[in-house]
Design brief:
heterodimer; A: 289 residues; MetI-like fold; B: alpha+beta; six-stranded mixed sheet; 8 helices; 20 strands; elongated; binds adenosine-5'-diphosphate; binds magnesium ion; translocase (chain B); ATP binding (chain B); ABC-type polyamine transporter activity (chain B); EC 7.6.2.11 (chain B)
Chain lengths: 289, 361
């Protein structure tokens, strides 16, 4: 069959691909690539007075990024996002591991519980943290009753990390769960059979083979944490500016679109590097797992 | 000397009874086979020995000590998994070294033993490869190397050769036997292939539906099956059901067939008049072509006549399928060399009474 009609078959195949790929691809082209190209182009022009750009090429938007003032914001944001990601990994791995070990019926219930917070509005959930953490809040009342408080909980880096962690922990648990669940249980048995204690089996077999899931989870948590500007504002009280806040302010308050674009580009660059690292490591770890 | 003593072990999974009061003694240094159809509980028994499964009832002793109390990673028992279970992220040599590293042996010794065992299984050249870069047969040999390099007291092999084609399988069977002689480890091999069990094992346990039907050396199993299932499962057999008489087994529509006299003390249920199953091997049946003038059955020392419906030549032997009026299905006979009868010929079937086996039903 394929021998007699390759042209027809090839055309059909191409058409089939176009039909299946087309809608999603078109959507992404229009609403992702076009804005991205715009942002890219803004970086090399001067700012307009009331936003927008003046089409005069300049490099000073980039040199401004080297200003310690802004670099600090970028590094500070990366630091908070890294801490959030690591904490999410530490909390998420045992959870995902336990869920993967549950009987089938309980698995479903546990997974629904993990994504349950997504069913209520993100802002409402974040406000709930304010109620919990502020100086008259529940935690501090408790501390006061014990004679330990009040302690400043709200408007700290800790509050931001707690908020980010709370928002994105499910994004860590889900890919971890699917990676761990897919592992052939006989590999763990083989490890035990060859004389490995449970801890050794974990370090030498389970963890390395679930590394693709670890990396996916880390990217899923790190990316939105780095770009988030609502949580730093609500829980950080504006005292700690994250790069997300800075970008928004450049566009909406300072009306410096070119510099906002440069900042956005810097974030994108960090993320692209991260994605490459993730793809590379995932290929190495999971080649045939 | 008994190495492993399995005593009344049962294991149930919900409604399924995977093992039903299984008792077996496996001797030091022997090559023991667990033979039975798929789903009869062979893997479950191995998993209990390896410690991945706990029995609901019963005891397992190794050298007289309770094995069930020992966690899997401390048992001197290695299992070669049916699926091989090679670590995909480690090279062949890392896979093989894994068990030795757990014993905290000196690096040099690990390297020597890994090199040695890879030499033995013929994979020295593939030491650096990952499992996914190997063929099925090579993977299987890695799994074997990984299990034997630990020099366990007991080596369990779960259908070790089932994934291989016939020729490689024959080679690996020889290899396994050679290895067992060389290293002196006690082998327990699981298989559903009766020929494989017969050619490999010193003793075979035939299992069915979670129970052990018979434990014997291959020759005894073949010549003296003790249950109808074993007679049918191990090698080809012709089975006739009837009633025990002084002269043989009386079968409806077929008359009295030659059968060994029931000896006192043996086969208590085989008293005259009781129902029994007669098993006669194809190669024990003599065929005598009948000429037109020949009389009806009963005068040829056997009692059965039939018509040849198929003759197949297998080089060394020929198989002859016969239809015998009054008997459901075909009777199978085997002769050395080419068959001297043709399709359509009427023949008399006979056998010596002592060649048949009577089984209680
Ligand atoms: N973990 C399990 N859960 C439920 N049923 C099982 C489990 N393991 C085995 N069984 C059942 O027990 C019986 C014996 O299985 P197994 O020992 O794997 O047989 P074999 O290896 O002889 O083919 C089968 O009916 C199988 O379905
Ligand atoms: Mg099995």
């Amino acid at each position: 069959m394929t021998g007699t009609g390759p042209p027809v078959a090839a055309v059909r195949k191409a058409a089939g691909r176009l039909v299946t790929l087309g809608p999603g691809f078109g959507f992404l082209t229009v609403f992702l690539l076009v804005p991205l190209a715009l942002v890219l182009s803004y970086t090399v022009f001067r700012r307009g007075r009331f936003g927008g750009v003046v089409h005069e090429p300049t490099g000073e938007n980039f040199t401004r990024l080297a200003d310690p003032l802004y670099l600090d914001v970028v590094f500070g944001s990366v630091k908070l996002a890294v801490i959030t990601t690591l904490l999410a990994l530490l909390l998420g791995y045992p959870t995902a591991y336990m869920i993967a070990k549950l009987p089938a019926k309980w698995k479903v219930i546990a997974l629904v519980a993990v994504v349950l917070p997504f069913w209520t509005n993100f802002l409402i959930r974040t406000y709930a943290w304010i109620v919990l953490l502020n100086s008259e809040g529940m935690l501090n009342s408790g501390l006061k009753a014990l004679g330990l408080g009040p302690v400043e909980l709200l408007y700290t880096d800790g509050a931001i990390v707690a908020g980010l962690l709370y928002a994105y922990l499910p994004l860590m648990i889900l890919p971890l769960y699917s990676a761990i669940e897919r592992l052939d249980p006989s590999l763990r048995e083989a490890s035990a059979n060859l004389g490995a204690r449970p801890a050794r089996t974990f370090w030498s077999v389970t963890l390395p083979l679930s590394l693709p899931g670890v990396l996916t989870g880390c990217v899923f948590v790190f990316v939105p944490s780095l770009g988030n500007f609502v949580i730093p504002e609500l829980l950080g009280g504006g005292r700690r500016i994250m790069v997300g806040n800075l970008i928004r302010d450049q566009f909406l308050k300072a009306r410096d679109w070119p510099f906002g674009s440069v900042l956005a580009l810097a974030v994108i660059a960090v993320l692209v590097l991260l994605l490459f690292a993730q793809a590379w490591a995932a290929r190495r770890a999971g080649r045939d797992a | 000397m008994t190495l492993i003593s399995i005593d009344g072990v049962s294991r149930r999974f919900g409604q399924v009874t995977a093992l039903d009061t299984v008792s077996l003694d496996i001797r030091q240094g022997e090559f023991f086979a667990l033979l039975g159809p798929s789903g009869c509980g062979k893997t479950t028994l191995l998993r209990i020995l390896a410690g991945f499964e706990q029995p609901d009832d019963g005891k397992v002793l190794l050298d007289g000590e309770d094995l069930l109390a020992v966690p899997p990673h401390r048992r001197p028992v290695n299992l070669m998994f049916q699926s091989y279970a090679l670590f995909p992220h480690m090279s062949v040599e890392k896979n093989v070294a894994y068990g030795l590293e757990r014993e905290r042996l000196p690096r040099q010794e690990i390297r020597d033993r890994v090199g040695g065992v890879l030499e033995t299984v013929g994979l020295a050249a593939q030491a650096r490869r990952r499992p996914h870069e190997l063929s099925g047969g090579q993977r299987q040999r890695v799994a074997l190397a990984r299990a034997i390099v630990k020099r366990p007291r007991l080596l369990l092999l779960d259908e070790p050769l089932s994934a291989l084609d016939k020729k490689v399988r024959a080679e690996m069977q020889l290899e396994l036997k050679r290895l067992q002689n060389e290293v002196g480890i006690t082998f327990v091999v699981v298989t559903h292939d009766q020929e494989e069990a017969m050619s490999l094992a010193d003793r075979i346990a035939v299992m069915r539906g979670g129970r052990v039907e018979q434990v014997d050396a291959p020759v005894d199993l073949y010549e003296r099956p003790r249950t109808p299932f074993v007679a049918d499962f191990v090698g080809a057999n012709n089975l006739f059901e009837g009633r025990v008489t002084g002269k043989g087994l009386e079968v409806d529509e077929l008359g009295v067939l030659p059968a060994p006299p029931s000896r006192p003390g043996e086969g208590a249920g085989l008293a005259e008049g009781s129902r029994a199953l007669l098993a006669i091997r194809p190669e024990r049946i003599r065929l005598t072509p009948l000429t037109r003038s020949d009389e009806e059955p009963g005068e040829h020392g056997g009692g059965l006549t039939g018509e040849v419906v198929d003759v197949s030549f297998y080089g060394g032997t020929s198989h002859v399928a016969l239809s015998v009026p009054g008997h459901e299905g075909h009777v199978l006979a085997a002769t050395q060399g080419p068959a001297r009868v043709d399709v359509g010929v009427r023949v008399a079937l006979s056998w010596a009474a002592g060649d048949a086996t009577l089984l209680q039903v």
